[in-house]
Amino acid sequence: MMHDIANKALDLTLKYTDQAEIYVEKEEGVNVDIKKDKIDFAKEAYTFGLGIRVIVDGKMGFSYTTRLDNIETIVKNAIFNAKANEIDKNFVFAPKTAYPKIKGIFDPKIEYLDLEDIIEFGKIMLDTVLDEKCEPTSGNFSTGYSKFIIANSEGAVAKDVSSIFSGYISVNADDKENISTASESDISRYMDINPVQIAEKACEIAKNSRNGKSTETKDCPVILDYHAASGLVSTFSSAFNADNVQRGRSVFADKTNKKVTSHSLSIYDDGTLEGGLQSAVSDGEGVPSQKTTLIENGILKNFIYDIYTAKKGEVKSTGNGIRSSYGDVPTVGISNFILEFDDIKNISEIKEGILVTDILGAHTANPISGDFSVEAMNAFKIENGEIKNPIKKAMLSGNIFQAIMEASAASKETRKIGPFILPQILIKNLRVVG
């Protein structure tokens, strides 16, 4: 059915213009929301949409719909929108090419899960929290699969199918004298995440965070646990976006082949990663996914490009034209953003510092300058290589680009947190505001 719609839409569009791109997407999923100690609501979701991009006399136009009974109207809308735009020679579509085979991104069992199955996962997570003598405050369990087809006038045809399985829980730990809160989540392409482990981890952090003590304002080593690290790395990653570079919004704009991070750090963007949460045969424009070296032992090697920014920069697209849905046009974005450190410094090497489980306010960080000021969530004092008392309240402030110059891994194990694959990260010197 998706093939038929793509072919029909492309044939119709080519009656009006020589350059066209069709994007067809189907998504099905189940979502279970938790509120306090009950399943608040559960629903099955289904979307089927079509997006059309055209180039008419050097002008780009776009239109989309979920109603597929009159595709020609959407075609005409895209043509109309193109004629209202300005000419830009950098508008082109992906050429015909071969695509890589991506492993580990689709679990067929997920396609056949029903609402009751997912509700049961949610109940298991809730029951575990109650068994741990904690109070659930909110949570979510969801699953789904998606399919897309991209076909264009250049002969490119890309198609893919993927699945997702995720769980999240937030809890309170109350001993009648102190209340603390914590959350934990996990996500995978397969049905291999454990609701019991998610709930137990959230409860463990919440319990350990009770009876927090104040900390003085100081500069010290800070270990960012996986969730905390991903929050700050999200700001850092925007500096590799070619659109930001070309607009003068990246501190890395003129630093190619120069040292920009700790020498022990290498960074890759890899849309072909086995089991990657952002892996696919192609990006949202039909450009084959690839692995791109961004940092090699601290040296800046490359940026990430979609077709438009690549044409503008006279380079090749890195397969980073990311599309959030059929209703959006592709823009430059990361796929699987991988941080690898040669240096690993264990917590036992830290005489005095803090461990931060998560942060609040990462979205307020300045992506251009890298300056940030965030709240440290579920933070703990480190003394003579051991985790001591929880910290009642603290802020972290600094500059992510400066901090990453002195960063190392604090663990061998890595986790997938959204698009980021990273270890715990040790920042050698960061301002902690008590």
Topology diagram in text:
Layout: H1 2-13, E1 19-35, E2 38-56, E3 59-65, H2 71-83, H3 108-111, H4 115-131, E4 135-152, E5 157-174, E6 179-188, H5 195-208, E7 218-224, H6 226-237, H7 242-246, E8 265-270, E9 291-296, E10 299-300, H8 307-313, E11 321-322, E12 331-332, E13 337-341, E14 352-360, E15 371-383, E16 386-391, E17 395-399, H9 400-403, E18 407-409, E19 415-417, E20 420-422, E21 425-433
Parallel strand pairs: 7-14, 13-20
Antiparallel strand pairs: 1-2, 1-4, 2-3, 4-5, 5-6, 7-21, 8-9, 8-13, 9-10, 11-12, 14-15, 15-16, 15-17, 17-21, 18-21, 19-20
Helix pairs in contact: 1-2, 4-5
Primary descriptors:
alpha+beta; PmbA/TldD fold; 2 domains; six-stranded antiparallel β-sheet; 21 strands; 20% helix
Structure characterization notes:
With about 425 residues, the chain is an alpha+beta fold. It folds into 2 domains: about 1-205, PmbA/TldD fold, CATH 3.30.2290.10; about 210-434, no CATH class. Helix content is about 20%, strand content about 40%. The protein is built from 9 helices and 21 strands. It has helices at about 1-15, 70-85, 110, 115-130, 195-210, 225-235, 240-245, 305-315, 400-405, and strands spanning about 20-35, 40-55, 60-65, 135-150, 155-175, 180-190, 220-225, 265-270, 290-295, 300, 320, 330, 335-340, 350-360, 370-385, 385-390, 395-400, 405-410, 415, 420, 425-434. The strands form 4 sheets. It has a 6-stranded antiparallel beta sheet with strand order 3-2-1-4-5-6. Strand 5 (about 155-175) and strand 6 form a beta hairpin. Helix 1 (about 1-15) crosses helix 2. The chain is globular and about 70 Å long. The chain starts with a helix and ends with a strand. The mean pLDDT is about 95.
